[in-house]
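fyi for ur records
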Amino acid sequence: MACIAVVFVSVLLLGMIVRAQDVISNDEASRIMRETPLNVPELIEKVKRGVVVVHPISITDPIAAQAGIMLGSGFVIDKQGHIITNDHVAGSASMAQIIFWDGSSARATLVAAAPYYDVALLKLDDPEPDKLFPVTLGDSNRVQPGELALAMGSPGANEGFNIDRSDPFEYWGLRQTATMRVVTGRDTDLAFAVGWNYRNRYGGGGQMGLSYALHYPYVLRMQVPINGGNSGGPLFNSHGEVIGINTYGGAWMLDQQSNIAVPINLAKNFVVEVLEHKRQDIPWLGVHCIFPPNILDPESYVEFRERMRPEGLWVYKVEPDSPAAQAGLADGDQITSVNGEEPPTPESFRTRVLLSEIGEEYVFSVTRGNKEFTVHLYTVPKPAYVLNFSV
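which gave:
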């Protein structure tokens, strides 16, 4: 478990993200960076000024705020002062205090939050472009298990009851650290990861898994240690590109080898929806292709995957009035191809839909008993009243 203390005295490569379009593209910069991996000291030196501490101010629990247990991390994405963090860090706040690498601070306002992705977008009230050092956003679709990843943040930020509030660095939790290990998986459903482990470790219930099932349908798993206060901070690849948002540490949920990050592509889609289209739409078809996590134990789910996957995607349930229902899909149908290709796993199918555009067409080849037919359906914004695990 490598842990590298970061000294707050070095220079960062200038950030390249200026507009929302640049958040998504930046292809040439990413290509150049991918050609030459950085060593660890170079990597830390390059990115650390873009990492910040996020201290929510107006939150629903003022006692928690005063205690300091709502502190987290974040990262600057453009010269206009936009900052990405977790929804569970700042999504319930209207404002936040942002603490930079050198101890200086500034006020930020919540622009939008997406609990479904656990992503929140903040904007500095009075950004000073010359003092901002945006990170470069990578492509989480390119991430493969076994790749090295570097998590940065301020895990000391959550030790609100044991800090010296007369020391501004300790008060604000500016114990910025970097930890580096490998990515162990992708397209993972956090509800299963959390819900299973909760039942295995503590016996019965599984309410933790059921609760988080509503929010985290697509995550990266990694051995990189994540601790309290790391939430919302960036997960970098070896080229200095952000590939994920550090979200949960296995020390208290799973195990220290199974930590969780939200893939950066979900956050990029969210940022574009908010900044360019002024909306927060989640693409949706209205299909359940896996059992809800609260009714399957791990052994049953493994058996389900082994039994069903060779035959395609099994439609466990169709949501009423959804695109899937309107196209004629029904409970128990089997999807044997998606857009002319072999069907993906249930997890990667969920990922594919979440990363779709609104209005994107899907063509399913379907088997129902002895009948075979084709249906066409189009993604729509997921209705606010649909709080289940359908995609």
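The CA atoms of residues 112 and 314 lie 35 Å apart. thats all i got for now
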